[in-house]
Each structure stands twice: as structure tokens, then as C-alpha cells.
Design a protein that fits this description.
The structure holds two protein chains of two kinds. By secondary structure, chain A is mainly α. Helix content of chain A is 64%, strand content 0%. Chain B has a domain of 234 residues: FAD/NAD(P)-binding domain (3-Layer(bba) Sandwich), CATH 3.50.50.100. The chains are: A mainly alpha, B alpha/beta. Chains A and B meet through α1 and α2 of A and α7, β14, β17, α9 and β26 of B.
Chain lengths: 47, 485
């Protein structure tokens, strides 16, 4: 017997969100944002 | 002149060795003892495990780097610690057994003034009968394991192409495992490969975990900023599972891995079985097999190491209920409780407690994700310990003691979910601080501005960037030290 969860109530991304996740221009901007966030966090954590 | 010995050449040990070598003069010795001849960027083993990289792309030989930097390297396994020396060798020393093919099996003793234990984990496949590459499941914990897993995966893909239905089971091989993030990554990389090969419809992909909810990641979950909202990591992660059609067995302790079938128990006492055609199940970790002795030869292992084999350091190990766990319980300097010239960096230190609430089934089975031990804190701790030792060498007892509490640092987890410059994807998650601090940040225990999650191609690019950046740094190429841990 197996007790599998399928998460039927979990939110799913909209079509526009899925497009944004693969759009190169949008993702280039997110890449910059992600870099800034990581650098900020790394800086805070180094003593 | 001083002699610092570093046991282990993973993220923590290698980082400590390179920084210490840079910070002190060549009249001081920096010595590394490691059983493997290569360094491995473990986060990219996931890609080896799906055939998107090979071992040579995630490893490199250590000896040439250490030769170039002036670090003495012994390819050997540390077996005994003698922090007070012994009757015939009064200086503190480590007993080793060489794994170097030129000295295979030879036993040696390496003296030290300062010692960093960065031995990492022992992959404890023995905790679950049938678990691991020598049993009935695969692993991606080492590059070699990942290559084996990929070969098995390609056979499954071949059968899927012939129209056979296949079940792929990925996750935790024991109720006390950590590294849920790695299992999550492998799950979605496999799922991505199945789609890329056009065989996804015939495959059932199942994730089995000891987490009480998805997104726990052994860190008690987190709330993070996501597109202007505060979202739980549970909702964030469940969304990915639903979108990609991956099912999960939650709150499970795998009790046995038979050929083509696992037996597990869930926290409510439910006993279950799951058949599989391919299983990649991670082992729990414990400290490496290292015994400690005092000057008279008495075994003091229990004073130096916790029962799980990890080294006891400046943490509060007082047993207390989950509700009383504090961020301040976690270590800051990583100095041994017993010897002030010994430190444990990275995975080698004993955590004072878990982060996720431990649970026990009615039958007494412990289902408790252990705290995650990722590369980022390991590197930061390795560097802090190296800085402390450098200060001690230069200024004696007056030297500054550097700290690197996991309750004061963040970590990033870039969980790959498919490789490709245009079609790749990953979930980028940052958490600050790693150890929840409810006194400082309220009920969530974390700064929701710094704790963040995002899915997309950009996160995949970040994962690729980190792969090349950290290999460059580990190879000690020019200006390597400017790349933060």
C-alpha cells in the first residue's frame, strides 16, 4: 500500500508567469536582481 | 614556526587551507590530509546524475593546486586523534592510513600545533538495510555515485522508449536524513530529462521524504518574499510538484530497500510499500570513524565527539524540548570543547539540535530531518577558523577570534530543475539567517526581506555561474580569494 500526496490545492503558475520564467529579457533582469540579493546576503554573513 | 593540519579537503577544509596559506608566511606549515585525490563541486553532481555533465567537469586533482600554493598534502585517511600526544610522540598528532597509491595502506603520524577537523560526513548507508549503490538504490552524493545513478537512469529511459511503464523513486533513504534540497533537485532534473526525451507520460516520478511538509528542507520551512507577497516555502514547493506532476510520500522513514521495493513507515504509524524501477535515495550522515586518545592512550572519543560522530564545539548541547531551542545554542567559533587548538569546520561539527521539529511514530520510529549542511556556511566557517588560527599564529592568545554563527549568516540554495541555456530552470532560495531566530525576527524566525524564492531560467544561469565560479576559486586561480564563500 502506498500513501501518495498529489497536492491538488497547491497554487499553479499562470500562463503569463510561465512565459516570464523563460523569457530571456525578463530573466536577464531577474538574474541581475538575484545577483544583488546574493551579494547583499553574503556581505551580511561575513565577519 | 607553526604547523596547522587540516583533516578533509571538501568545501570547509579546502577553503580553510587556501585562506590560511594566504594569510601566514611560508615559514609556517599548512598540511592537508584527505583520503581522496580530487576535489568535488558536489552541487553539480546532480547534473552528473542525469548525464548532463561528467565527473571530469565537477572534480579536479588536489595535488597540483597544493603544490603550487605551498600546502603539504597527504592522501590519507585520518583514523586516530592524539590531541595530547602519546607516550612515544609527545606532540599532538593525527594517525593516518595512506590511500595514496604510492603508499597504499602505510600508517603514519602527522604532528600539529593547530588542527582543523573538516572531515565532512560519513555516508551512513548502513542505517537502512538495502540502501545505497551496494544495495538496491542509487546515490548522487559523490561524482562516482552520480555516474552510476545516471547509467541506471539511462536504462530506465531506454525501457520507457520501448513503451514500458516505469516508476522512479527519489528522496530520503532514512527517517533522519538531511539534504532534502539535493533530492528535490535530482527529482526535478530527472523529471526534466524524461520530458526532454519525450517519455514523461509513461513514467511515475515519486518523491519520498522525512519532511512533515514539502518545503521544510530540514530547516522547519520558511516564509519568503515572492513577487511582493510573503509565501510559505510549503506553498512554493507544492506548486512545483503539482505543476510538474510529481507525487510525494511525506513524513516517511524508509525502513528497508529491497530489490525494486521500499518499505517505509509514516509518522502516524502507517506502514507502506512502494515499488520502483529506479530509486535514488540519499543516506543519513554521521561523523567519520575517528577515535581520540589522551596522552596515556585512554579512549576519549566520547569527550571529543558527540554520539553521532561529529565533533563537539562551542555550542549549547544541553538537551531541551523543541520549544526551548534558541539560535544562540549554535556555535560561533567552532573551537573544540576540550582542546583550544582544535576546531571543527563545515559538516564535521556537532549541531546542538535539529531545526525541524523531530517527530516519532507511535511505533517509536524517529522521523526527524537533520539540519542541512550546505556549502555556503561550510565555506564561511572554514574561512573564519582559518582567520582565527592565523591571528593565533601572529599574535598568540591575544589574536582576534573570528566567528561564523549560522544564526547570523544566510545561505542560498539554487535547486536545479532542468539544464539548458534557454530551457533550463531552477528554484533560487535564499534564507537569512539559516538558524531561525524567533527572538529577533518573530514567529517565522527569519528576515522575510532577505529570505526569498524565485523559479525561472535566471536561477538556472545562477547555478551554472556558481559552478564555474567555485571551481575557479577552488583551483586557486588568480584573485580566487575575491570570490566570497
Amino acid at each position: 500500500m502506498t500513501n501518495l500526496s498529489t497536492f491538488p490545492d497547491a497554487p499553479v503558475p499562470s500562463a503569463s508567469e510561465l512565459r516570464a520564467r523563460t523569457n530571456v529579457l525578463v530573466q536577464l533582469w531577474r538574474f541581475v536582481v538575484l545577483n544583488v540579493k546574493l551579494i547583499t546576503m553574503v556581505t551580511k554573513g561575513h565577519h | 614556526m607553526s604547523r596547522t593540519v587540516i583533516m578533509g579537503a571538501g568545501v570547509a577544509g579546502h577553503t580553510a587551507a587556501l585562506h590560511l596559506r594566504r594569510m601566514i608566511g611560508r615559514e609556517h606549515d599548512v598540511v592537508v590530509i584527505a583520503p581522496n585525490s580530487t576535489w568535488n563541486w558536489i552541487p553539480s553532481n546532480i547534473w552528473v546524475g542525469v548525464g548532463q555533465m561528467d565527473t571530469a567537469q565537477v572534480t579536479f586533482p588536489l595535488a597540483p593546486v597544493y603544490r603550487r600554493k605551498g600546502v603539504e598534502f597527504h592522501q590519507a585517511l585520518a583514523t586516530e586523534l592524539h590531541p595530547e600526544g602519546s607516550a612515544d610522540l609527545p606532540r599532538p598528532h593525527v594517525t593516518v592510513r595512506y590511500t595514496d597509491p604510492a603508499r597504499q595502506g602505510e600508517v603514519g603520524r602527522i604532528e600539529y600545533d593547530y588542527l582543523i577537523n573538516a572531515t565532512g560526513p560519513k555516508l551512513n548507508f548502513a542505517a537502512t538495510p538495502g540502501l545505497g549503490p551496494e544495495g538496491n538504490s542509487w546515490s548522487v552524493c559523490t561524482a562516482g555515485h552520480a555516474e552510476e545513478a545516471n547509467r541506471a537512469l539511462q536504462e530506465v529511459i531506454g525501457r520507457l522508449k520501448r513503451g514500458e511503464r516505469q516508476t522512479l523513486l527519489i528522496g530520503m533513504g532514512n527517517g533522519t536524513c538531511t539534504c532534502q534540497g539535493a533530492a528535490f533537485e535530482y527529482t526535478f532534473n530527472v523529471e526534466h530529462e524524461l520530458r526532454r526525451e519525450g517519455v514523461r507520460d509513461n513514467a511515475d516520478v515519486i518523491y519520498i521524504t522525512n519532511e512533515s511538509s514539502l518545503g521544510d528542507f530540514g530547516m522547519d520551512g520558511m516564509n519568503f518574499g515572492h513577487k511582493g507577497q510573503v509565501v510559505s516555502s510549503q506553498a512554493f514547493t507544492e506548486s512545483i510538484f503539482r505543476e510538474r506532476g510529481v507525487k510525494a510520500i511525506m513524513s516517511a522513514a524508509v525502513e528497508r530497500v529491497d530489490e525494486g521495493k521500499v518499505a517505509y513507515e509514516q509518522v502516524d504509524g502507517t506502514q507502506g510499500e512502494q515499488a520502483f524501477d529506479f530509486a535514488m535515495l540519499l543516506p543519513p550522515f554521521r561523523g567519520v570513524d575517528l577515535a581520540a586518545f589522551d596522552r596515556d592512550g585512554n579512549d576519549i572519543t566520547a569527550e571529543v565527539f558527540a554520539p553521532n560522530g561529529f565533533m563537539k564545539v562551542d555550542a549549547d548541547y544541553t538537551p531541551k524540548p523543541y520549544e526551548e531551542w534558541k539560535a544562540s545554542d549554535w556555535p560561533k567559533t567552532y573551537q573544540s570543547v576540550k582542546y583550544d587548538n582544535v576546531w571543527a569546520a563545515g559538516i564535521a561539527f556537532a549541531p546542538p539540535h535539529a531545526m525541524s521539529q523531530p517527530r516519532t511514530s507511535p511505533n517509536g520510529t524517529v522521523i526527524a530531518p537533520a539540519p542541512p549542511r550546505t556549502g555556503m556556511p561550510s565555506g564561511v566557517i572554514g574561512r573564519a577558523v582559518a582567520q582565527t588560527i592565523a591571528e593565533r599564529i601572529k599574535h598568540g592568545a591575544q589574536g582576534k577570534v573570528h566567528t561564523a554563527s549560522m544564526a547570523e549568516m544566510g545561505a542560498a540554495c539554487i535547486a536545479a530543475a532542468g539544464k539548458g541555456w534557454r530551457k533550463g530552470t531552477a528554484a533560487a532560495m535564499t534564507v537569512f539567517p539559516i538558524i531561525p531566530d524567533k527572538d529577533k525576527y518573530g514567529a517565522s524566525g527569519r528576515d522575510t526581506k532577505e529570505t526569498y524564492g524565485e523559479i525561472g531560467l535566471s536561477a538556472h544561469w545562477m547555478k551554472v555561474l556558481l559552478h564555474y565560479l567555485f571551481l575557479y576559486k577552488a583551483k586557486a586561480r588568480p584573485f580566487w580569494y575575491l570570490i566570497p564563500e
